Amino acid sequence: MQVFKFGGASVKDAKGVRNVAKVLETTYPKQKVVVISAMGKTTNKLEDIISLYFEKSKELSEAISSLKQDHYDILDELFDNSSHPAYTKTNYFFDELSIFFDRNKSPNYDFVYDQVVGFGELISTSIVSYYLKSVGIENVWHDCRNLIDTDSTYRDADVNWENTQQKILNHINEDELSITQGFIGSDSNNFSTTLGREGSDYTAGIFAYCLNAENVTIWKDVPGVLNGDPNVFENTSLLEQISYEEAIELAFYGASVIHPKTLQPLQQKEIPLFVKSFYNPKDQGTKVGKGKLLNPLLPCYIVKKDLVFLSLSTLDFSFFVEENISEVFSLFHKHQIKVDLIQNSAISFSVCVDNKFKNVDKLIEILKAKFKVDHQKGVSLFTIRHYDDDAIKRIEKDKTVLLKQLHKETIQFVTA
């Protein structure tokens, strides 16, 4: 049993869906669980639709119709006539989406978010499943909300591993090709939940753990894990081998190729993870598993953009001590603020934070009641693992460095 994961870029259009079929044919299309994300930028468009819903905008219906047409364009290229059941299933999900908006009474954004965004994965997997059948690749479509059991922390749910494993073992036939969604699950009230943005990788890890899979392969539009994002850094190189520990470090600092939560369950059972190109499925790609820390050993560059840099000090210029720090972190937790970098001195405390849930402005106003607060939005956090002097110069060139933090294997810069 193997687990494959295809991201949104791999199924962004009809050509991509056809290529998924080719990859499966190349790698033997049975005894696999295939986890698939929403098509292209569908999740972003659903987020815009949610915003229109809360704004009570008259453009809501038009935005839903536009997204439906996007999927119809793909259907029209894949199937000969509009009576194919793939159209019926797609219509069903868009009807469900509209019904939810008509009936929903909850003002909770996070709850609404999780009930809506998962439609992208449900629709994409249905289309892929029907297309595979049309070209002779038999498969079974599964609604992942019936398989992954979580708590009710909407937008970042925790998995109930015992219940989830039992459900997966009861529903997945290891001799078949199973198609399911990344990113989504459900809580004890059967409301949809999500595992955090980019959680489809994590979904693949969950299935692999529960099924004791032989390996996991994440299919990307890059040849494997590179030592930097080629859209940001020039002259990047392929990393052929990465240890679990090093991969977790890279993911923790923000490397986007592998989701941070994906690696822990795989490491527990020593299940290898491969990152390969869906354009060249026979290439070796990158293996994450036991073995060398990194091969080849190169500086690895990571950047997280559009962060917020906060500097706090006491109003009476007294020391910034454990009591202050504890209070600040309690507020971070309450407002779902993820801290990416910390530095403190006797009278000040500086952090670089991610404003994913758009709560920073509210937090700043609360902090101002007890602290002097300076902040700067739109900063970038650069991280170099296994740095050398040339790597440091490369990042510092032509940038305003607000903060630098140096460790044995890692250096980080906050830049304006």
From TrEMBL:
GO terms for molecular function: aspartate kinase activity. It is an enzyme of class 2 (transferase). Coiled coil: none annotated. It catalyses: L-aspartate + ATP = 4-phospho-L-aspartate + ADP. Pathway: Amino-acid biosynthesis; L-lysine biosynthesis via DAP pathway; (S)-tetrahydrodipicolinate from L-aspartate: step 1/4; Amino-acid biosynthesis; L-threonine biosynthesis; L-threonine from L-aspartate: step 1/5; Amino-acid biosynthesis; L-methionine biosynthesis via de novo pathway; L-homoserine from L-aspartate: step 1/3. Residues 2-277 form the Aspartate/glutamate/uridylate kinase domain. Keywords: Amino-acid biosynthesis, ATP-binding, Kinase, Nucleotide-binding, Transferase. Its EC number is 2.7.2.4. NCBIfam families: asp_kinases (TIGR00657). Belongs to the aspartokinase family. This is Aspartokinase. It comes from Psychroflexus salinarum. The lineage of its organism: Bacteria, Pseudomonadati, Bacteroidota, Flavobacteriia, Flavobacteriales.
